[in-house]
Write a structure and sequence with these properties.
five-stranded antiparallel beta sheet, Immunoglobulin-like, TIM Barrel, 27% helix, globular, alpha-amylase activity, hydrolase, alpha/beta, eight-stranded parallel beta sheet, GH13_cat_dom, O16G_dom_2, SusG-like_C, Oligo-1,6-glucosidase, domain 2, binds 1-deoxynojirimycin, 15 helices
Length: 544
């Protein structure tokens, strides 16, 4: 067993976590101040979104120096201190590795731009214009518009699958790969616990053939990376792979292939989108689809892979507002999604604020938006004839600022996040929803998370148990069992605001209630009645 197999990871988006110096931007000393809180929650590792030097075109995912800390976050000494202080609490720091692209202000790109003969030219992907002088092909950027940007000086285009300030690195160049591995070793030597690898499935791209994800050399590069950096180190790695299927996930995470520990798959996060369209083209979630997708991932990886489990991150809306109910049943539905996820097999990730049920942000106009993805989409679609109202609605539902509002620590000035003016406004509900209030209330969402983390540590069934979906066709109840040795646990969750009764095709009697989100100490399995957003985990007893 590897340490990350029974671990729980907590993601910090540093800009929005805790500001120690009053400039309105969260920072490393601010994180150190809150480590006791995270230790109390019980997490094992922190995935730290980027804190490197960056012009912040995409809030740090555009890196201009991988081996320097952005002054707004602190210094390299602060970083060393964070690693040390976290280690004292048995918490590992997982760095965000953003190596599909750099910033256009990275020294490599500054050099590359000087001309075709520059030694760094081939660190990036340059192509001549098409015959009509336009971009080499019609590849699109994730952040709207063409993925090619014209460079006047050399008369060539460079590739950027994200913003034009995020030129793609050319992984076919072995000097690029070597530079990345050296940089990774720099961080490993500092004692970090591993890497979350940003859009790593794009590094094997073949832009001329319009192949971006899953390129032919992708796994060769990851195996080489493993040999040059990760081998023999007791670290975890998780790749961000939007296009992963269980089959491709095994290629990344089969231990014998020596690539990554696990990947983030996003199939379950795309079920409220119209198939084949973009994230902005909304559709209602069908619970049976969610059950079937998550169950497929639970059962199909077998021993050749390991799941990552998550509902949230800095790119996704808040789960309680998205699939739950952030008004009448905020507490119940936040706990329900926690229970559903944390009883599954894999490594759970908690995104800051999820553990207190923070909600999505509501905006009324584009002037309130910070996120480059939403702004670019808005401008592009406005030109295409969409109305402002429908675009604002889509941003309210899916925009990335939803998850990026500052952490709500208490009910004082700016929710205790900063003594100054926060870079993104605090949510108006901070007086009710904040860490201090959660810690004082023994029935809070926080304590459900704490309990779920503890359950994983204390019960091998949570880590290793076989997963079995129950009642696959039921359209409001998500039910599954876990089996380990001669134990069975049943997880039942009513994902709706209506009471539901149901019958289980089972001979079992209810044993101990392991965890629940209503005040309940027994359940009659012969006639189950579930309250709105009720979730319960019960041990099953079989009489034989
Ligand atoms: C995925 C990151 O999570 C996202 O925030 C970023 O914009 C893109 N990759 C580009 O780095």
């Amino acid at each position: 067993m590897r340490w990350w197999q029974n671990a729980v990871v907590y993601q910090i988006y540093p800009r929005s976590f805790n500001d120690s110096n009053g400039d309105g931007i969260g920072d490393l000393p601010g994180i150190i101040e809150r480590l006791d809180y995270l230790e109390d929650l019980g997490i094992d590792a922190i995935w730290l979104s980027p804190v490197y030097q960056s012009p912040n075109d995409d809030n740090g995912y555009d890196i201009s120096d991988y081996q320097a800390i952005h002054p707004e976050f602190g210094t390299m000494e602060d970083m060393d201190q964070l690693i040390k202080e976290a280690d004292r609490r048995n918490i590992k720091i997982i760095m965000d590795l953003v190596v599909n692209h750099t910033s256009d202000e990275h020294q490599w790109f500054i050099e590359a731009r000087k001309g075709k003969d520059n030694n760094y030219r081939d660190y990036y992907i340059w192509r001549d214009p098409a015959d009509d002088g336009g971009p080499p092909n019609d590849l699109k950027s994730t952040f709207s518009g063409s993925a090619w940007e014209y460079d006047e000086k050399s008369g060539q285009y460079y590739l950027h699958l994200f913003s034009k300030k995020q030129p793609d690195l050319n992984w076919e160049n072995k000097n690029v790969r070597k530079a990345v591995y050296d940089m990774m070793n720099f961080w490993l030597d500092k004692g970090v616990g591993g890497f979350r690898m940003d859009v790593i499935d794009l590094i094997g791209k073949k832009p001329d053939e319009k192949i971006t994800g899953n390129g032919p050399k992708l796994h060769d590069y990851l195996q080489e990376m493993h040999q040059e950096t990760l081998k023999d180190k007791d670290v975890m790695t998780v790749g961000e792979t939007w296009g992963a299927t269980p089959e491709t996930a095994k290629l990344y995470s089969d231990p014998f292939r020596e690539e990554l520990s696990m990947v983030f798959q996003f199939e379950h996060m795309q079920l409220d989108e119209q198939p084949g369209a973009t994230k902005w083209d909304l559709k209602e979630l069908d619970l049976t689809e969610l059950k079937s997708v998550l169950s497929k991932w639970q059962t199909e990886l077998g021993n050749q892979g390991w799941n990552s489990l998550f509902w949230n991150n800095h790119d996704l809306p808040r789960i309680v507002s998205r699939f739950g109910n952030d008004t009448d049943y905020r507490v119940e539905s936040a706990k329900l999604f926690a229970i559903l996820l944390h009883l599954m097999k894999g490594t759970p990730y908690i995104y800051q604020g999820e553990e207190i049920g923070m909600t999505n942000r509501k905006i009324e106009s584009i002037d309130e938006v910070d996120d480059i993805e939403s702004i670019n989409m808005y401008n592009e679609r406005l030109d295409e004839g969409y109305t402002k109202e429908e675009l604002i609605r889509a941003i309210n539902v899916k925009g990335r600022d939803n998850a990026r509002t500052p952490m709500q620590w208490d009910d004082t000035h700016e929710a205790g996040f900063t003594t100054g003016k926060p870079w993104l406004p605090i949510q108006p509900n901070y007086e009710q929803i904040n860490v201090e209030a959660a810690l004082e209330d023994k029935n809070s969402i926080f304590y459900t998370y704490q309990k779920l983390i503890r359950l994983r540590k204390e019960n091998p069934i949570v880590v290793w148990g076989e997963y079995e979906l129950v009642l696959p066709e039921h359209n409001t109840v998500f039910a599954y069992k876990r089996h380990y040795k001669n134990k069975t646990w049943l997880v039942l969750a009513n994902v709706s605001r209506n009471e539901t009764s149901l019958e289980l095709p089972d001979e079992a009697q209810a044993g101990n209630i392991i965890v629940s989100n209503y005040d309940r100490d027994t359940i009659d399995l012969a006639k189950i009645a579930l309250q709105p957003f009720e979730a319960i985990v019960v041990e099953l007893k079989y009489s034989s």
